[in-house]
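User: Quick sanity check before I run a bigger batch. Here is a single chain. Can you write out its predicted 3D structure?
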Amino acid sequence: MFKHILVPLDGSALAEKALDYAVQIVAPKRRITLISIIEIPDVANTFHPLPANLTMVEDNLASARDYLNRIADELRKTHHLRINIEVKVGKPADVITELAETEFVDAIVMSTHGRNGIERFIFGSVTQKVLNAMPCPVLVVPGKETIKSAEKEPFGLSQVPTTS
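Assistant: Done. Predicted structure follows.
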């Protein structure tokens, strides 16, 4: 079992699937750090509009904090774990690997969105970049199709009782 696990979350249900795995491999009464990263696109990137102003970035940071606090409160209540939250601005893979190193994280548990082809080329793969940097063991939760088939199973991973 791990003492400190980092779980990157982007607000999607798919990313949240990593939580089921994280609570099962963290040692009792140990720590999970939840992180959300607000990415400000490069000026050269024409696929995403630039934030209108600093207020928009601040609003996104506040929304991310609220989102992580809701998840953290639920995990504390149901699994009796120490939960920290981090909200940062930057390139997701860089922020994840840097935080893993500076906080001496034992493992990262993250989901892959299962992108391929042109979509992966355009948006890149945060998971792949974290795997390439590999600051610690990384558990990758399967992408879209595997998650959909797991949801059809009568006892998906999220339904397995965990011990506190």
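The chain has one domain: 2-159.

User: Great, the batch can go ahead then.
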